[in-house]
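Writing this down once: the sequence line spells out the residues, with the fold written below as integer tokens. This is how one looks:
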Amino acid sequence: MRNFLFLVCGLVALGGCNSVYMKPNTLDVNQVFYADRGGYSMRRSVKETMESRGYKVVVGKAKTVKEWTDADGDSEIDTTSIPNNTKYIIKAKERRETFRPVWCALNGFWWWNFNVSIADQETGDELLTWRGRGCANSSVRLLNRILDDMEK
């Protein structure tokens, strides 16, 4: 009984790692997608995965950069302009990735903790909300499955 309870708790904990809300058949591959610059591996992987699938992903043009130095070190804020022909906005927020050689062995070795959102710039609809935690390779595979469902 104790082992069964442990197994059920483990499956519930693993199942709670990802929460996905999406609107199927809403993404037009031929439109322009805007994504934030930089980021850790997850943000970069979202852009690379979408580009490899044929999406046109842009990061906009830098308008201003404000730099300053304080006790915490050097900081800067970039302001970018979103191109007028942009149909979708991609936001990927990530916490620092963690190296997990045992937990994520043969699955990318890195543990990601992130939020991804895709919104339609013209209508204001949010098409994807994904709160995820997982190993690098399995998260990219899940992103591909999500994009498969969302494409028209």
The radius of gyration is 18 Å.
